[in-house]
Amino acid sequence: MKRIFLSLLLLASFFAIQAKTLVVYYSYTYNVHNIVAELSRQIDADVVRIEPAEKGLDYAADNYAIGSAQIAAIRNNPGDAASYPAIDPVNVNLADYDCIIIGAPLWWSQMAAPLQTYLFHNGKAMAGKKIGLIVSSASSGISGVEADARRLIPDGDFLTPSLWIRSSQTSNASSLIAGWLSQIGYHNFSGITITPDDQFPAKYTIFSVDGRMIASNALSLQTLGRGLYIINGKKIYLND
Ligand SMILES: Cc1cc2nc3c(=O)[nH]c(=O)nc-3n(C[C@H](O)[C@H](O)[C@H](O)COP(=O)(O)O)c2cc1C
After folding, report:
1. Ligand 1, pocket residues at CB < 6 Å
2. pTM of the model
3. Boundaries of CATH 3.40.50.360 in the chain?
4. Which of 34, 141, 159, 230 could cross-link 207 (Cys pair, CB 3.0–4.6 Å)?
5. Chain-centre distance of CA 85, in angstroms?
6. Closest ligand 1 atom, CA of 64?
7. What is the pLDDT along the chain (240 residues), one digit of tens a residue?
8. How far apart are CA 176 and CA 39, in angstroms?
9. Check: CATH 3.40.50.360 for 19-189?
């Protein structure tokens, strides 16, 4: 059996080269919000939520009239900044991230308008970064949202496939996300991954990502399941 003894120093050097992930999403009725909350339990990422500048709009009223008008404006003139609804300022330095996961509601077969606004202004700064796309829709297929993402992030290194979660499947997000992360090889390019055969120094504490203390010392990693843990204060993915 392979036995790798990691010193804390070695661990520190791993973290120095750890790839960083940003999740950017918009959510009107909280489906994407709940999906992103689940994603955050499975990966180590910073999360940014896009907010329309105009508050209190009911995008679904009158058969989705406002959302529909916003999508139509973008469709008619996608190159004009004036076609995109205003959003609150977003304070994030994209240069800090290697991977960006976009969480998008589908509106009239396109990407929800406020998220398009963010990508219209910032998509070019995502050139060369790994881009993952998660889309929530009631029933419509997601190819229009994928096309929007590729138009707005012209030089993104897109991870395929995208993850499509129907709104009725939001409660199954945990397993759908876990399957998708392994499909795109997420844990191979992001963060530090250890296997149960790896060993930690004598002193460590392990928490679940939702803050439950799992063990303090004297626990073999072999007894933990696959997943994300906080070990000595750092998020670490344990592979099986
Ligand atoms: C303006 C608007 C347009 C929508 N258009 C579609 C559509 O064309 N097809 C579809 O399957 N769902 C459509 N939906 C439903 C959303 O895609 C779905 O409810 C999604 O889960 C919303 O994500 P959220 O809860 O994070 O906002 C639309 C929703 C809104 C608000």
Report:
1. 27-33, 59-60, 64, 67, 105-109, 136-140, 167
2. 0.85
3. 19-189
4. 230
5. 23
6. 1
7. 323 333 333 344 344 345 799 999 999 999 999 999 999 988 989 999 999 999 999 998 999 999 999 999 999 999 999 999 999 999 999 999 999 999 999 999 999 999 999 999 999 999 999 999 999 999 999 999 999 999 999 999 999 999 999 999 999 999 999 999 989 988 777 766 666 666 655 667 788 877 888 877 666 666 777 788 887 777 787 776
8. 10
9. yes
